[in-house]
Amino acid sequence: MELLKTIHWEKLAEIKELKNHFSHDFDSFQNLIVDYITIWSNLDKENLDKLAILRALEVTNGCTQWAYRRGDKDCLPIEKTRKCMSVSMSSIKNKRIYLKSETITFPPEIARLIDEGRSLYIQAFKNNLPEKEREFYALSTAQFLVYGRERMNRAFDIIQENFGDVFTEFFINKGRRYVQPYLEAIGEL
Question: What pTM value is reported for the model?
Answer without folding.
Answer: 0.95
